[in-house]
Each structure stands twice: as C-alpha cells, then as structure tokens.
Design brief:
Layout lengths: L9 E3 L15 E6 L8 H16 L2 E5 L7 H13 L4 E6 H11 L4 H4 L1 E5 L2 H13 L6 E4 L4 H15 L6 E5 L6 H12 L11 E4 L2 H9 L16
Parallel strand pairs: 1-5, 2-3, 2-6, 3-4, 4-5, 6-7, 7-8
Helix pairs in contact: 1-2, 1-8
C-alpha cells in the first residue's frame, strides 16, 4: 500500500506571505475549481486543455485542488506544465487525499503536474487557494470548469465571499456545452424570487469559450450590491 507521507516533491502547507510588490508587477493567479472525473463528453477535457493554453498565452499561474488523475484537474495541470513549466501550476491538496491520489495514480511528479502543497484539511486548502488569488495581480480570480458537489461548494463559497466584501476578484463560470445552464437559470430565479439582490446577480459571470474566460477576468467589475464590510484584510 502506498505511503501516507507527503510526496517528496510536495511542500507542507504554509501561510507565509510573500514580499509585497506593486499590483502592476504581480503575476495573475487564477484558481480553477473542477471535477476529478473527465465527464462523459470529451468537450469537458477539451475545455480544460483550451483554458490551460490561454493561461500559457497570458502568463497566468494556475492554483487548483492538486488532482493528478485523468480527469479535469489532472488535464489542466498537465497541459499547462507542458507549456509553461512546473512553476506555472500550484496544486493544494489535503493530507488525507494524498494517500488516495497515490493509490490511484502514483506519486506526485512536479515535472508533470507542477508544485504541490500538502495541507491538513479542506478548510486550509480553500483558504490557501483563495489567498493566492487575492494576492495576485490584476485579472486574478476564480473559474469553475465542469465538476460535481465539490466544485459547487468551492464556487459558491467564493461567490459568497465576494458578496460579503472579503475579496473583489472575478468569479467566472466556464459553461461547456450548456453544463451550467441550470445553475444560471437558478440564479435568475433566485433574483426574481427575492433571494439574491439584483445588484449581486453579476458576481458570477459566464464564459462560453476559454478565451472569453480570460476576457471576463480582465474586465470584471465589482457588483454594485456587494457588501462594504471591513474584514481586516485587503
């Protein structure tokens, strides 16, 4: 049975803050939420590859959940590492999932999937991924590719954090083959039913192509209904 120890190429989670630099010189960092599975349509994996190519063109660093299998996570990481090198990808994975990854897909290989940080739990994972985005340069943000329960949970948390004023980064839904049409319809229904303020409907924006994802992040505008709360961080 595979060892439960962190992989040799991984670093143990750290919340050390990088030396401050001006926004204009910071690299764009985009956190991608997506499924561990490939989906039944090849369009989903093709979308992940296309997004990785756009990240390469625009010198964007990917932060993601650290999956290395044949699904969405592994595909976007492998594609970007092949194009931009290991430093372009930062996977963040909880220690309990390391054993599962190693049993199913083997040891982590930085030359294939990029840098990996092992953290103790899911909460620390999401906190660190969000922190990397918040510290990124203009155009940094969060993107949801196709996925399941975990993708939805992560997506709605960063939407809520935006609504509450915890961050002001873009949140983009990459809607491949209409996969998220139902979610977009739900947001519209929630607005018309009075559960989401009209001024907050624009927190989540849609993109139909990989190139449009980058455009939406660059041109993202903070929703007018967003709360102006002081969380002691900027």
């Amino acid at each position: 049975m595979a060892s439960n120890a962190p992989p040799a190429s991984a670093e143990v989670g750290s919340n050390t803050v990088s030396t401050p630099t001006s926004n204009s010189t910071k690299q764009v960092v985009v956190c991608v939420f997506c499924g561990l599975c490939p989906g039944t349509s090849t369009a989903h994996l093709e979308g992940a590859k296309a997004l990785a190519r756009e990240f390469h063109k625009n010198n964007i660093q990917l932060v993601y959940g650290g999956g290395t299998g044949p699904g969405m996570m592994g595909e976007i990481a492998r594609t970007l590492v092949a194009l931009s090198g290991p430093d372009a990808v930062h996977g963040v994975i909880p220690e309990p999932l390391v054993r599962l990854e190693q049993e199913d897909f083997g040891v982590f290989d930085e030359d294939v999937h990029g840098r990996v940080t092992v953290v103790p739990d899911m909460h620390t994972r999401k906190q660190l991924m969000a922190k990397k985005v918040i510290e990124g340069g203009p155009g940094s943000g969060f993107v949801a590719l196709s996925g399941g329960y975990g993708t939805m949970e992560e997506l709605f948390e960063v939407i809520t954090w935006n609504q509450l004023g915890i961050h002001d980064k873009g949140v983009v839904l990459f809607n491949i083959e209409g996969y998220y049409d139902g979610l977009i319809s739900w947001v519209q229904t929630a607005v018309s039913s009075g559960f989401i303020a009209p001024g907050n409907a624009g927190i989540l924006v849609e993109a139909l192509e990989a190139e449009e994802v980058i455009t939406q992040l660059k041109e993202y505008r903070v929703a007018e209904g967003r709360a102006n709360l002081d969380w002691g961080q900027k």
